[in-house]
Amino acid sequence: MIVQEQEAIDKAVEAITGDMGALWITIAAVLVFFMQAGFTLLEIGFTRSKNTGNIIMKNVMDLAVGSVMFWAVGYAIMYGSDLVGGGFFRSSPSDQGYLFFSADDWYNLFFQTVFCATAATIVSGAIAGRTKFSTYLIFSAVLTTLIYPISGSWYWPFDDDAWLNVAGFVDFAGSSVVHAVGGAAALVAAILVGPRIGKYVDGKAQAIPGHNMAFGALGVFILWLGWFGFNGGSQLAWGGSDTVGATSVIINTNLAAAIGAIGALFFTWAKYGKADISMTLNGALAGLVGITAGCGAVNAWGALAIGLLCGIVVVLSIEFIDKKLKIDDPVGAISVHGVCGFLGTVLIGLFALDGGLFYGGGAKLLWVQTYGSLSYILWAAAASFIVLFILKKTIGLRVSEKEEVEGLDIHEHGIEAYPEHISQDK
């Protein structure tokens, strides 16, 4: 009788723990969903007012298109039970994967859907102000249906069929799986679309200031908040040791963001003689992106080190890409997500408590982290190039000079986001 009662108690506790985990993942997914508003405000603030409506539409449709396509196809490719192409991606029988998911997995589907939308949204900022809306929609659909889910299947199912998981690769919440993929796609898109009119004159980069730094700052605060769900929710459970793990991840995330902002602030202050606002904001984002891979693998000191390095590197990267490579990225998305996504992933090889070089683990993890992250970057860049090159040769990537000068709001959407008397870009 005692044994039976204990078994009943254990089952009840297990059920409650499972429900609490599902609730935590759902709450975290809602926070990540809200990050879409942060990306929208950040991109609006860092660019010209005449393209505000276009940016709103791109970010809305990233979420809308991504939600449908990831539900219909992407989730099965990323988490399916059957391997395709020797494990290159996955698939599932139609009654188990495509267009349908078990009720037991609905909260996981929602959580992974908003991650997928984040990867797509990264591209938007890098090509703001000069890209055809129709072309962008097509690329966003391909990224959320195929590009992101295929590479995501290499690691996140956390089973013996995911080759990077078998190799010992560590990317807790997606510095590479999400951010480096989005950053690599953004790099290719920015190169193929080309710079905005007036960005480079006689070979020199010209500043094109954003029209509303308040929007940009609010966007960063929203993203910072949402990142607690992005990283904390990736614990994928709540209760007991998982509660400790999730809250530890949240603390590491906050520390990295904070020191990233501080690092960018003082670095630019020393470099320019002024406390640069946009670089400080990007420093916070760089810290967030950088710690996303290792937030569950490092301690607070490791989080501070990763955040600080990313906060400084993002400043150098934005300048190098803008002034040396002459690639026009209005919001710094390539540097924040691509460069710092790679850097944060690699730095796990140094700072991981289990296997990190600084903790007696040797160089093995550092090597795995390097080639694992590069695999994501090369895949996303190659796949994006193929898709965008085809689009460029068919329907085109870029709006006309007249449309760009007068603004995409008018020509792509038939409306202005602001009354004409307060627009600064006429």
TrEMBL record:
Could you tell me where this protein is found in the cell? Cell membrane; Membrane
Keyword Membrane on entry: yes
Q: Where is the Ammonium transporter AmtB-like domain?
A: 23-418
| Sequence intervals crossing the membrane | 21-42, 63-89, 109-129, 136-156, 176-193, 213-230, 250-270, 277-294, 300-321, 333-353, 373-391
Q: Which residues form a coiled coil?
A: none
Q: Which InterPro entries does this UniProt record tie to the protein?
A: Ammonium/urea_transptr, Ammonium_transpt, Ammonium_transpt_CS, NH4_transpt_AmtB-like_dom, RhesusRHD
Record carries keyword Transmembrane helix:
yes
Membrane-topology annotation of the record: Multi-pass membrane protein
- Any idea which UniProt keywords this protein has? Ammonia transport, Membrane, Transmembrane, Transmembrane helix, Transport
What is one Pfam family matched by this protein? Ammonium_transp
**Main subcellular location of this protein, as a coarse class:** membrane
Q: Which family does it belong to?
A: Belongs to the ammonia transporter channel (TC 1.A.11.2) family.
Protein name listed in UniProt: Ammonium transporter
